[in-house]
């Protein structure tokens, strides 16, 4: 049995279209932020996948010596660091600076 989405597109095709749209929006937003902060295009990096794994790979590939990331962990062992920040911290050889993000 095959499920169909709008306009004769299969569910899989619809998901690819959504992913492509999300990627384009993320690239545009990253460029906007980078331009506002004076970060050159070649210094901006957008990756897809499991966040901690992608950060670990980027650190190795680009010889990164400092990661700055926001965190908003709220309970249990994650009270001080969110689960992503915690995963990044325990898997990289460089320094990690976390900044608490509040609403």
What value does the Rg take, in angstroms?
18 Å
Number of domains: 2
List SSEs in N-to-C order.
Answer: HHEHE
Name the assembly state: single chain
Helical coverage, percent range? 40-55%
According to DSSP, the number of beta strands is: 2
What's the helix count?
A: 3
pLDDT averaged residue by residue: 84
What would you note in describing this structure?
With 103 residues, the chain is α+β, with helices and mostly antiparallel strands. Helices cover 45% and strands 12% of the residues. It has 2 domains: 1-46, no CATH class; 49-103, HUPs (Rossmann fold). It is built from 3 helices and 2 strands, in the order ααβαβ. The chain has a two-stranded parallel sheet. The relative contact order is 0.11. The mean pLDDT is 84.
Would you kindly provide a brief summary of this structure?
With 103 residues, the protein is an alpha+beta fold. The protein has helices at 11-37, 51-62, 83-89, and strands at 66-71, 95-100. Helix 3 links the parallel strand 1 (66-71) and strand 2 (95-100).
């Amino acid at each position: 049995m095959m499920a169909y989405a709008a306009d004769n597109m299969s569910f899989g095709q619809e998901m690819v279209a959504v992913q492509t749209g999300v990627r384009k929006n993320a690239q545009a937003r990253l460029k906007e932020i980078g331009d506002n902060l004076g970060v050159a295009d070649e210094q901006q990096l957008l990756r897809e996948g499991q966040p901690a794994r992608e950060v670990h790979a980027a650190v190795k590939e680009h010889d990164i010596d400092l990661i700055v990331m926001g965190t908003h962990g709220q309970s249990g062992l994650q009270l001080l660091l969110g689960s992503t920040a915690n995963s990044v911290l325990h898997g990289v050889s460089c320094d990690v600076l976390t900044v608490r993000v509040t609403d």
